[in-house]
Amino acid sequence: MPHRRRAPLACVLAVVAVGVLAVPGGAEAALFEADASGSVTITALEHAGGGAGIIIKGFAFNADLSATMQGNAMAQATGMTTILANDPNNMVIGDGLQQSVDIDGTAGIAEFSSAAAFAFVDGFIDVFNTTADPVSVTFQLSYMMTVNTDAPEFDSFASSDAFLEVSVDDVIVYDDFIASSSGREIPGGMMQTGLVTTTVNMVTAPFEFGSLGFAIDSFGAATVPEPATLGILWPLLAVGAASARRQRSGRGR
After folding, report:
1. Which tens digits make up the pLDDT trace of 224-251?
2. Which pTM does this prediction carry?
3. CA distances from 154 to 3, 22, 251 (A)
4. Of 116, 84, 88, whose CA–CA distance to 103 is shortest?
5. Regarding beta strands 114-129 and 171-182, do their DSSP bridges make them parallel or antiparallel, or are they unpaired?
6. Mapped to the 3 state alphabet, what secondary structure does 42-95 carry?
7. Residue-wise DSSP of the chain
């Protein structure tokens, strides 16, 4: 069954953020960085028939990338999903998906300078059970995420975050989120998850279809707003990012 992607809400947030963030300012650059990488690997398969009649396939979509700049600014975004299998239509133990996203940007001294970037990648591992016995597939999830911001001047602001999600049959079973903001009285700086490893199990009933979804995204913005505008932007960005996370699931098939 083909997968239908839901348009990531944070793409909209990135465009809106730049429109709002492009306000006069004359301070030194604010910067944001975020990168995340991870993999899901098939580590075990339990089935009364020894796996006969079990078909496992991998699907990868092109990355959704957005980088917008205004004035003296720079932003870039990259992302990729790779199916790690000799045959993506017949995956076996040891095969899996690998993903990565990387964004960064700066807003400089010139008036109306702002930058924003967004990267989203996702893929699926589908299990087709054509037998009269249930099948249990175990996956190992490994990932690292890092975000960093700096806004050294009084009227500068930067924010970045990274988010990871694993779902089984469109139900989120694992997620993680880190964020950093720098601005007036907000130190920001670098946040890291370190290397995280865990397992995810999926059971597919007889003559049924099961799907494991894996997605990573990152979002960042940098600007030099006027002091009166700055107090409005912080809650706007926080609410927008939280809303994007809540609605990220449910892409459907």
Report:
1. 764 345 444 444 444 444 444 444 444 4
2. 0.81
3. 47, 17, 41
4. 116
5. unpaired
6. EEEEEECCCCCCEEEEEEECCCEEEEEEECCEEEEEEEEEEEECCCCCCCCCCC
7. ----PPPPHHHHHHHHHHHHH-----S--EEEEEEEEEEEEEEEEEETTTTTTEEEEEEEPPPEEEEEEESSEEEEEEEEEEEESS-TTS--TT-EEEEEEEEEEEE-SSTT-EEEEEEEEEEEEEEEE-SSS-EEEEEEEEEEEEEEEE--STT-EEEEEEEEEEEETTEEEEEEEEEEEEBTTB--EEEE---EEEEEEEEE-TT-EEEEEEEEEEEEEEE---HHHHHHHHHHHHHHHHHHHHTS-----
Backbone angles phi, psi at 233, to 5 degrees: -70, -35
pLDDT by residue (tens digit) across 93-144?
999 999 999 999 998 876 678 899 999 999 999 999 999 999 999 999 999 9
CB 233 within 8 A of CB 225: yes
Instruction: Look at the chain and count its residues.
Output: 253
Q: Which residue reads 């006069």 in tokens?
A: 24
Tokens, residue 108: 């400089």
Quote the longest CA-to-CA distance of the chain.
69
